[in-house]
Amino acid sequence: MISPAALIRRAAPVLACIGLLVVWQVASLVLKNDSFPTAVEAIRAIPDILGDKEALLNILASLRRMALGFCVAVLIAIPLGLLMGRSRSVAAFFNPLLMVIYPVPKAALMPIIMLWLGVGDITKTLVIFLGVSLPVIYHSFEGAKAVEEKMLWSGAAMGLSPAQRLVRIVLPAALPEILTGCRTGLVLALITMITSEMIARQSGAGNILFNALDMGQYDTVFAMIIIVGAMGIFLDTIFERVRARLVRWSEPQFDLPLSFS
Amino acid sequence: MKAPQNGRGSNDVSHGCENRRLSGRLLAKSVPYAKASDGMTVVSARPSEWVRPVTSKEPASAIIEIDRVSQVFQTSARRDHVALSDISLTIEERAFVSILGPSGCGKSTLLYIVGGFVTPTSGAAKMKGQAITGPGPDRGPVFQEFALFPWKTVLGNVMYGPRQQGVRATEAEAQSLALIEMVGLKGYENFYPKELSGGMKQRVALARTLAYHPEVLLMDEPFGALDAHTRTRLQNDLLNIWERDRKTVLFVTHSVDEAVFLSDKVVMMSKSPGRIREVIDIDLPRPRRRSELLLDPRYQKYVVDIERMFDESDEAGIAS
Ligand SMILES: Nc1ncnc2c1ncn2[C@@H]1O[C@H](COP(=O)(O)OP(=O)(O)OP(=O)(O)O)[C@@H](O)[C@H]1O
Ligand SMILES: [Mg+2]
After folding, report:
1. Cβ(B109) to ligand 1 under 6 A?
2. Residue B213: what pLDDT?
3. Which of B130, B142, B93, B88 is nearest to B110 (CA)?
4. Which residue has the higher pLDDT, B3 or B196?
5. How far is B117 from chain A (nearest CA, A)?
6. What local confidence, expressed as pLDDT, does residue B1 receive?
7. Fewest C-beta in 10 Å: which of A203, B9, B145, B298?
């Protein structure tokens, strides 16, 4: 038996979605604009896209680039961030570099990268990689910096070498912060994925979206927005589940997590 | 070098000086104190009558030697800040030594130097004749901040040291479970640090350090953050554990009672710059029972004398 409070909590995300769709539907009916299809029209276009093999392959290609860019970024950014957080000289070396890249929209680098590496997978994956790296580096850096010195001393007294301390004390101690960075990185990966395909129109979910826009198929445009949004929510929800499990030891006991589910 | 040094405290406080001369005795090493104290019932003892020291045949061997150690910190505000000035101290094997002093006199710094976490500006600390160059499992710290690994359970924390030392998992687990029981946390093995109270965390920290069998325990105000009741209980527990396996303990505190209750020797420090003011041998029978000791005039005299010294150094501090 589920309590009423729990029932409301479970139903809340669904209700929020329905509410949004209703507002959309009403707004669209009132505005009567050709380029603003109703929610029902947009939703009806979804099966057409997902039923089309070509479109599906495009979306999968997008996801593959995104996964690759995200994973490589995380694998490089976490060690780099941790090292920067624990070593003054590493931080001094990389800090100016990152400070230069940080405020630049990664998509703005795309034209140059495209000149060098073409419009293929490498360019897009590289842009996703850049987009994901910075928040992950930043959060790993902050997490590593905040590790209590006495914890490291305790490890040193047990005989852990500096490298062991980095992997076995700094990494787990900074994990909550690192995963916060990864979660931001994941959403950024999705955003850079679409932007990169908008600039280098060749394949992918972004390509479908902007092609439809060019051809004036507005229901397909909105259907794609819904699909991309749903992918984002799905990925974020999965990630949040994994994250919560990994850092259960650090979560405050009673806390409403900021997540969709 | 002679074992206990007097600090450079210039004014002689008329404190059990007779007692201080008996410094050569072996500290507590398997001496049948219980007999000695049985002969002298607590109530009948007059303050002037000290327990006859059990002079030992073998000389106490030094385990830690601190030789003219000074520590200067570069601070942003006051450029050179002398935290420790010319500290020399010898700690004998299996002794329980407390470092007592006002806040900021460099007690923690001294402990960190012995731990090898901080390298002194000048002078050297030695452990068993070897210069201390870094941390090592022969010296186990227990920090005031607990510094438990929050991602590990109680058991995981306690097992960490033995596992690092290459003890097999099953064996390390068995040992750790026994230790957890000894510090009174049976049933909490699978709790995470965030699920424990302050006193419980302190117990875990102690068990975690005991688990890898350091020869010297370095404890920095381990009970400072606890309420009076928990504090008393943990003091008793610590004494029981210590009386069982007699490790050398270097114990930092700012509580006079605590220092006298626990120690063989109390090192009094003074502030600005941190110096050793006085080294006082505590000649009280062991095993010590709190209830008996509190009524013991000798204990009371130690506490009062040391507190008086504290006040004097305070006044000196204000005057200067
Ligand atoms: N890393 C540091 N940098 C600069 N100054 C320091 C540093 N660590 C300690 N000090 C200074 O050294 C002095 C001694 O500090 P320490 O922590 O050893 O004192 P303490 O006796 O342990 O005090 P408390 O009883 O409050 O813990 C203090 O005046 C402090 O300001
Ligand atoms: Mg201190």
Report:
1. yes
2. 92
3. B88
4. B196
5. 7
6. 40
7. B145
CATH number corresponding to A37-246 = 1.10.3720.10
**CATH of the structural domain B2-53+62-319, one choice from 3.40.630.30, 3.40.50.300, 2.40.160.60, 3.30.1330.30:** 3.40.50.300
Contact A176, A247 (CB under 8 A): yes
Which ipTM score applies to this complex?
Answer: 0.84
CB atoms within 10 A of CB B20: 15
Other CB atoms within 10 A of residue A156 CB: 22
Q: Quickly list DSSP for B86-121.
A: EEEEEEETT-EEEEE--TTSSHHHHHHHHHTSS--S
CB-CB neighbors (< 8 A) of A158 in chain B: 137, 160-161, 164-165, 212
Measured distance CA(B158)–CA(B65) in Å, rounded? 29
Across the interface, whether the CB atoms of B137 and A159 are under 8 A apart is answered yes
Chain B residues within 8 Å of chain A (Cβ atoms): 115, 117, 134-137, 139-141, 143, 145, 147-152, 160-161, 164-165, 192-194, 208-209, 212, 214
Give the least confident one: A235-239, B6-10, B165-169, B292-296: B6-10
**Residues in chain B, total:** 320
pLDDT digits (tens, 9 = 90+) for A12-60: 888 888 999 999 999 989 988 888 898 899 999 999 899 989 899 999 9
Mean pLDDT of chain B: 81
Compare B147 and B319 and report the one with higher pLDDT: B147
The arithmetic mean of pLDDT across residues A190-210, rounded, is 88
pLDDT higher at A257 or B114: B114
Judged against a pLDDT cut of 50, whether residue A137 lies above it is answered with: yes
* CA of B250 relative to ligand 1 center, distance in Å: 18
- Domain regions of chain B by residue span: 2-53+62-319
Q: Is B104 in the pocket of ligand 1 (CB under 6 A)?
A: yes
Reported for A163-172, long-range contacts at CB under 8 A and 24+ positions apart, including other chains, are A166/A82, A166/A83, A166/A86, A169/B149, A170/A82, A170/A85, A170/A86, A170/A144, A171/A78, A171/A82, A172/B149, A172/B151
Contacts 24+ apart (CB under 8 A), A107-110: A107/A192, A107/A195, A107/A196, A107/A198, A107/A199, A110/A195, A110/A196, A110/A199, A110/A200
